[in-house]
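TASK: fixed-backbone design
INPUT:
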């Protein structure tokens, strides 16, 4: 099921022995467009410290109770590695967290594309043993080749540039709570067409400029303007998605955006 990222933020995280904190942000892989980590604000419990938890252990949220239950103890979270969530999270830092918990990383042999080797509700434990020294060495070797993870909170508000000019800004993200993939960016075009909001699939994104805080699309402003309308009451079901994909000729359905920093 698709959920607005803004609606999931604020959900509480409950460990086996008590409350841990609330979700304040997500970190997503800018190549695959999968949400990899939830950023948890622990509040006064840990003196305002923020911690990272992989989305694979969150399972399906209880939206009525605005709660995720995780198979961890508060002590495990308290003793987890310190991570500066205000800075880009590198593969080395991710490996450090995975090694602490003894989890298999998502770049290993997962159960589904983009997975971490564990799917909540399947009856298996996420504590699958620490990496072998060989695996750790391979991870370290690849570290500098991997893109940094990006903050959903930070990208919200980025300017959207069509192939022939600016068209709006990123207002939100639609995330599938089954695999934590970002299926759509919600784009507000009110500066050009009052009240008009549209969805943009990641495959329509040509490039992201982190310095200019902008997202460039591979389609024109006219194409975006005439795309299927969207508002928060819209049900993005298979009928809507088929209409959307047919409108864009399927170009946004399976394609992936160009990694930042690559020449166009």
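OUTPUT:
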């Amino acid at each position: 099921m698709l959920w607005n990222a803004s609606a999931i933020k604020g959900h509480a995280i409950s460990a086996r022995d008590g409350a841990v904190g609330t979700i304040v942000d997500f970190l997503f892989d800018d190549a695959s467009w999968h949400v990899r980590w939830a950023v948890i604000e622990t509040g006064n419990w840990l003196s305002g410290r923020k911690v990272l938890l992989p989305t694979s252990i969150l399972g399906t949220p209880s939206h009525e109770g605005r709660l995720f239950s995780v198979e961890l103890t508060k002590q495990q979270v308290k003793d987890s590695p310190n991570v500066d969530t205000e800075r880009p999270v590198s593969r080395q830092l991710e490996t450090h967290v995975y090694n602490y918990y003894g989890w298999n990383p998502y770049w290993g042999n997962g159960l589904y594309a983009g997975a971490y080797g564990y799917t909540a509700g399947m009856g298996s434990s996420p504590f699958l043993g620490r990496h072998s020294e060989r695996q750790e060495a391979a991870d370290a070797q690849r570290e500098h080749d991997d893109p940094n993870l990006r903050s959903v909170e930070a990208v919200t508000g980025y300017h959207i540039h069509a192939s022939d000019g600016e068209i709006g800004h990123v207002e939100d993200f639609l995330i599938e709570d089954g695999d934590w993939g970002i299926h759509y960016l919600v784009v507000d075009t009110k500066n050009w067409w009052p009240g008009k909001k549209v969805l943009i699939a990641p495959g329509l994104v040509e490039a992201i400029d982190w310095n200019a805080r902008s997202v460039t699309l591979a389609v024109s402003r006219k194409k975006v303007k005439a795309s299927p309308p969207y508002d928060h009451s819209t049900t993005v079901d298979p009928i809507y998605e088929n209409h959307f994909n047919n409108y864009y000729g399927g170009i946004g359905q399976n394609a992936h955006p160009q990694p930042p920093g690559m020449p166009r």
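COMMENT: Residues 158 and 214 are 5 Å apart (CA to CA).
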